[in-house]
Amino acid sequence: MTVQCQALVDTGLGDNILFPSTPGSGYQASLDSYYSLDVREIKPACVFQPRTADDVSKAIRVLWKPLSGNVAVRGGGHSIWPNNNVAGGVTIDLSLLNQTEVHQPNEPNRAPIASVGAGSRWASALLEIEKYGLSITAGRVGTVGVAGLTLGGGLSFHSGRRGFACDDVTNFEVVLATGHIVNANDEENADLFKALKGGSGNFGIVTRFDFAAFTAGDLYGGMVTAAWDQKDTIVESFIRLIDINEQNPADSQIVLYMYDPANRTSTVSSVLVNTDGITNSTSFEPMAEVPWLADGRATQTYGELVAAMSDERGDRYVWFSLCFQNNKLVIDKATELWETLIDETQDALGDVDRLIFVFQQLPRHYAQKNPGGNVLGMDESLTEDAIVWLGEAFARTPEAEALFQRRIGAITEELEAYAEAIDAATQWRYINYVNEKQDPIKSYGAEVRSPQSSIPPVVRVLLTMIFAKQNIAFMKQVSAKYDQWGFFQTRVPGGFKISHVE
Ligand SMILES: Cc1cc2nc3c(=O)[nH]c(=O)nc-3n(C[C@H](O)[C@H](O)[C@H](O)COP(=O)(O)OP(=O)(O)OC[C@H]3O[C@@H](n4cnc5c(N)ncnc54)[C@H](O)[C@@H]3O)c2cc1C
User: Fold this and answer.
1) Is 100 helix (H, G, I), strand (E, B) or coil?
2) For residue 22, what pLDDT band results from cuts at 50, 70 and 90?
3) Residue 467's pLDDT band (cuts 50, 70, 90)
4) How would you class 389 by CB atoms within 10 Å of its CB: exposed for 0-12, middle for 13-18, buried for 19 or more?
5) When you count CB atoms within 10 A of the terminal residue's CB, does the N or C end of the chain come out lower?
């Protein structure tokens, strides 16, 4: 047994520790419940499953000691790269902190609060909250964790009305590197409150999220799929949807190019949702004549929809992400790169479960819901309506994974360069979607870039650097204040670290 795991046992936490050598301890079940096969293959010396914030606090008081080994923090375990598990160290698996409670307000004009444990997944949290006729600004796939998604920002079907999931957090319960349990909200530890809204795992271990809840009925939506020759109609409709989204904030669309290696065909799917339950929303009118090959839309609750969209596949995932302006030329370029990718990788595609390009809406008004209230920096940098793009391969073998890391990495660079060249680039990169080789925190600042801008490029670059540094400097200050010895920067190696950003 390692010194670290022994120290946890000596602290009286032995009942919550899972060892590889103890059959039936739950160690393997914990590893098998990660989303990514690459993460499942990482073997910690022991897995610690706290039942309370107090358990986390006791463990951190032991684990922070300098001669101890490394630590990982796991919420829902859905990150596609190993920022949530640690070889030979202690993985803190929060999955038993999975309670959801709804509190009605004591004062008029206050929102009800949904308190969600940091090990919860979206489907179970939402289905509980919906028993009260309420919802929260939630993720869109039921098995994904509440914690990682919210700490990184959180794109939701409710984003048109509410902004990012993190914007609707009213309080975080956090265990600091000292082991102290604190609340971070508007009144207590307000700097930490803001830094946790987008700053991911840089500042502490969040054990509970208190979300502002709101009344919600059924939505109308689900996944539709069409033949490849329908892509132009669908893409043009998507661009229009973004253009008119501020007036139609209940509507959202996720466009997915999907390649099926078995049939050697591409299809184009969309997840279409109206959160008000309207079945013929104006945003989707241009697709009224599309002959869908499959149409999964239904009137249902948000929780029911995301429970049906759960995904626990266990492949070797390759993800890269970009943002660019809502400009058809960039999507056309992505389409050209998609077709070339498929042509040039035919031999390897037998080892891939899926190849996907995803396009998601990021209209400017999403960033205006909580100005200055998070560290994403988009209220300054998102000067135009935008699209978040994801290039993904679900590989079955390490060889196929390595190949698509190279190929999709190169496509990302080419698409980024193209968007720059036609002045359609957008600075922000989403921490929850990027490849581990990308650098999202660097993008958390203001950008002064606009096609109409008369500011010379050199001045724009300088201004961008200055504003970006303001947000980064703020996060560095918060890290230094709440984690004086840099425990979450050095001893919890997983994730994008604020200390690594210049
Ligand atoms: C199928 C699928 C669908 C998705 N859909 C969406 C979507 O609709 N919207 C969206 O915005 N994103 C989406 N994502 C991306 C998602 O936000 C990230 O994968 C996110 O990291 C998942 O959260 P998790 O709790 O499962 O993460 P984990 O893998 O458990 O953790 C991710 C990171 O957060 C840190 N962390 C986790 N919990 C805590 C905590 N309590 N305290 C401190 N640090 C912590 C971990 O150490 C790690 O670095 C999706 C991902 C997948 C795979």
Assistant:
1) strand
2) confident
3) low
4) buried
5) C
Lowest mean pLDDT among 208-217, 241-250, 469-478, 491-500: 469-478
Q: HSE, CB side, 13 Å, CA atoms: give it for residue 424.
A: 20
Q: Which atom of ligand 1 is nearest to the CA of 155?
A: 11
**Ligand 1 atom with the shortest distance to the CA of 74:** 30
Give the Å distance between the CA of 149 and the centre of ligand 1: 4
**Distance, CA 34 to ligand 1 centroid (Å)?**
11
| Residue 115 pLDDT > 50 | yes
Establish if 457 belongs to a structural domain.
Answer: no
Residue 174 CA: which ligand 1 atom is closest? Answer: 42
Query: What residue's CA is closest to ligand 1, atom 34?
Result: 148
The answer to whether residues 279 and 395 belong to one domain is: yes
- Domain CATH code at residue 143: 3.30.465.10
CA of 84 to the centre of ligand 1 (A): 9
d(CA 183, CA 209): 10
CA 165 to ligand 1: nearest atom: 11
Q: Reply yes or no on whether the pLDDT at 447 is more than 60.
A: no
* Cα 153 to ligand 1 centroid, rounded to whole Å: 10
Co-location of 363 and 277 in the same domain: yes
Residues with CB under 6 A from ligand 1: 35, 73-80, 83-84, 94, 118, 139-141, 144-145, 147-149, 151-152, 154-155, 200-201, 205-206, 311, 432, 494-495
pLDDT average, residue stretch 118-129: 98
Do residues 388 and 360 touch, judged by C-beta distance below 8 A? yes
Contacts of 9 (CB under 8 A, 6+ apart): 1, 17
**In this structure, what are the phi and psi dihedrals at residue 356, rounded to the nearest 5 degrees?**
-140, 135
pTM: 0.94
Same domain, 168 and 203: yes
Predicted confidence (pLDDT) per residue in 475-492, tens digit: 999 999 999 999 999 999
Residue of minimum CA distance from atom 32 in ligand 1: 148
Verify that 200 and 53 share a domain, yes or no.
no
**The CATH number of the domain where 273 resides is what?**
3.40.462.20
The DSSP 8-state label assigned to residue 326 in this structure reads: S
Rounded Cα gap, residues 189 and 181, in angstroms: 12
Looking at the CA of residue 144, tell me the nearest atom of ligand 1. Answer: 26
Torsion of CA 430, 435, 441, 446, to 10 degrees: -50
Q: Give the mean model confidence (pLDDT) for residues 395-404.
A: 96
Q: Whose CA is nearest to atom 3 of ligand 1?
A: 141
Asked whether residue 459 is domain-assigned, the answer is: no
Domain final position from 168, 187, 216: 216
Ligand 1 centroid vs 225 CA: distance in angstroms? 27
Please give the tally of structural domains in the chain: 3
Instruction: Decide if 478 is inside a domain.
Output: no
Domain that residue 177 falls in: 100-216
pLDDT band at residue 401, thresholds of 50, 70 and 90? very high
Does 247 share its domain with 383? yes
pLDDT score recorded for residue 502: 83
Nearest CA to ligand 1 atom 15: 432
